[in-house]
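Q: Joint fold for the lines below.
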Amino acid sequence: MSPGLDTARTVREDQQISDSPRAIERTRALNGQPQRVPSADVHIPDYPRATQVDLGEILPDSFQGESTEIDVPRQFTFEPDHWSAALLSGLDAADLDGMRVGEVGVGAGTNSIFILGSKNPASVTVADYLPELAPLAIHNMGKMLRPDQYEGKVFAYEGQQDLASFASPGEFDVVVACVPQMVRPEGLELEGADFAHYYDPDQYQSRLNDSGLGLNDVLLQQLSACLDVGGRAIINLAGRPGKDVLMNQLFRENGLEPRILHERVIPHHNGTSVSHMATIEAATDGGRQFEFFEDPAGEIPMNASTAERRRLDGEPVFHKIYVIEGKKV
Ligand SMILES: C[S@@+](CC[C@H](N)C(=O)[O-])C[C@H]1O[C@@H](n2cnc3c(N)ncnc32)[C@H](O)[C@@H]1O
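A: Joint structure:
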């Protein structure tokens, strides 16, 4: 399932938060500031209804771990998918050796585990909006990595961490994120795994909420304020708003010079409506166009209105994913 995006569901499956290990919902705070905790001190609960997922198909060859299997409790997060494969390819192309890496919205830990198992970073620090997920990522590190690949270099911000609000100036050389790019459907109260797919635009002031980029916009505002010059943000993004919006409005206007690390075309999930994008196109009389494709090679473009018609007719629809690295200037 994607970063909220294509495979996002409005109907919840298997979502019983009652067994959520809320005991871990504690943010260690000193003077109101969240504290970075070494992984050895993080309480890792049982995840009794987790599904075992084999990442072998999507892990780049450079990964040198002990196993390719993670635990995914679907009530809290999604199973890695096309989006995850794209981001891993982008991370494979990034220079992360010796870097202090932070991951915002770590989920089950796939990206941080890959970085630890192939890049030799100086440290990796994980956090997520759902308090269950930083401990889950650390649990999965223990499954997939050799102790020498993670011991002493993994840290967590426990509890509920909204985007990069925990990060202090100069703390990270690189911050990685793949966070939702679909606004909350009307009437859906977000909980559990919904946060892997949707965000509430009322909580994030951004001129890019119409494009589903509000959460990423606020994230890049925060990172622009806390990265040193030359520090980098690596983000996985749907190409639907168009490359120009991503490069200029999202990255450059937030003070980060972008370059594309990886791009690919993926199928749009047929169950997810793009009618809100079609509505924006109609309201601007075609002045604002979203980017979809008829074909898996991404050679025949179409707008959201056409994509929505094809989707409703059961015809395939595709869109691009870009992994973009923005360098603080
Ligand atoms: C699509 S999942 C991606 C998980 C992981 N980064 C990956 O690529 O496998 C999005 C993640 O972002 C988290 N998230 C959603 N809203 C967030 C926010 N405001 N701050 C931090 N994390 C958030 C979700 O809980 C979820 O773990």
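Q: Anything notable?
A: Residues 214-226 form the longest helix (13 residues). The pocket of S-adenosylmethionine is lined by residues 3-4, 77-78, 80, 84, 87, 104-107, 110-111, 128-130, 133, 161-163, 178-180, 195-196, 199, 215 (CB under 6 Å).
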